[in-house]
């Protein structure tokens, strides 16, 4: 199985490559350090599965949900496995809804990535145990406040608390400044938050940042 991997941390990239190649039936045919490199690789190098980090700041193609959207739009048949530190069920569910077939917790043993790649190549979903527990808990606590946010609002909040301005987010997501500003305002209203500093604190507490 030909696989392209992407992560902005060299140590994670090296560890992921080693874990996949040790599996014996997976060949890493390319590595990328950001969304731009990943998109360029996909245009020039055929592969069977993508393994990508969720948060890779920088680059015109961005990261997170917008990058998943781009990949799924251009390569609808190509399975995507996401590596992430996010522990918020609403954000994780948004990844699945956008077409990520596998979700791997970066804190889990790297050998899980090979299992996820095999599942994805066969068209089957894969979740790390910790992520599965997040979904189970969310099923019990269906009134969790984050669940009230749309996927677009979640992405705006995630990028904002990472340090990006409204204008930068608008450029990243190809939306107008007015739209992004409204989505941030709507998210804060739904969450009952009236100050930007509280939004950052909330995001850290709820695992919206990664």
List the helices and strands and how they pair.
Elements lengths: L1 E5 L3 H13 L4 E6 L2 H10 L4 E5 L10 H11 L5 E5 L4 H9 L4 E4 L5 H11 L4 E2 L1 H12 L10 H11 L4 H8 L3 H15 L4 H11 L4
Parallel strand pairs: 1-2, 1-3, 3-4, 4-5, 5-6
Helix pairs in contact: 4-6, 7-9, 8-9
Question: What features would you describe in this structure?
Answer:
This protein has ten helices and six strands. Mean pLDDT is about 85; it is low at about 140-145. The chain is an alpha/beta fold. It comes from Luteibacter flocculans. Keywords: DNA-binding, Phosphoprotein.
Task: Provide a concise account of the structure shown.
It contains 10 helices and 6 strands; from the N terminus they run βαβαβαβαβαβααααα. With 210 residues, the chain is an alpha/beta fold.
Number of helices: 10
The pLDDT mean sits at 86
Taken from the alpha-carbon principal axes, the silhouette is globular
- Judged by helices, strands and strand pairing, the structural class is alpha/beta
Strand content: 5-15%
Q: What strand order characterises the main sheet?
A: 2-1-3-4-5-6
What is the gyration radius calculated from CA atoms? Answer: 17 Å
For the biggest sheet, the summary is:
6 strands, parallel
Helix content: 40-55%
Number of strands: 6
Ends distance: 29 Å
Order of secondary-structure elements = EHEHEHEHEHEHHHHH
| Unreliable segments of 5+ consecutive residues | 140-144
Protein name: Response regulator transcription factor
Domain HTH luxR-type: 142-207
Organism: Luteibacter flocculans
Pfam families: GerE, Response_reg
């Amino acid at each position: 199985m030909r696989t392209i991997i992407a992560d902005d941390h060299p140590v994670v990239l090296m560890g992921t490559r080693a874990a996949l190649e040790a599996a014996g039936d997976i060949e890493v045919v390319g590595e990328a350090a950001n969304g731009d490199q990943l998109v360029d690789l996909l245009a020039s190098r055929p592969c069977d599965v993508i393994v990508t980090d969720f948060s890779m700041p920088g680059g015109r193609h961005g990261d997170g949900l917008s990058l998943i959207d781009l990949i799924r739009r251009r390569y609808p048949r190509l399975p995507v496995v996401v590596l992430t530190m996010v522990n918020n069920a609403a954000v994780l569910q948004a990844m699945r809804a956008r077409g990520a077939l596998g979700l791997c917790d970066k804190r889990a043993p790297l050998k899980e990535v090979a299992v996820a790649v095999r599942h994805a190549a066969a068209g089957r979903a894969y979740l790390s145990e910790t992520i599965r527990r997040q979904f189970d808990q969310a099923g019990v606590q269906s009134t969790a406040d984050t669940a009230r946010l749309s996927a677009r609002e979640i992405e705006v909040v995630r990028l904002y608390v990472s340090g990006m301005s409204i204008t930068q987010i608008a450029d990243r997501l190809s939306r107008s400044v007015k739209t992004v500003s409204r989505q941030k305002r709507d998210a804060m209203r739904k969450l009952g938050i009236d100050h930007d500093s509280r939004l950052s604190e909330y995001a850290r507490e709820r695992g919206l940042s990664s």
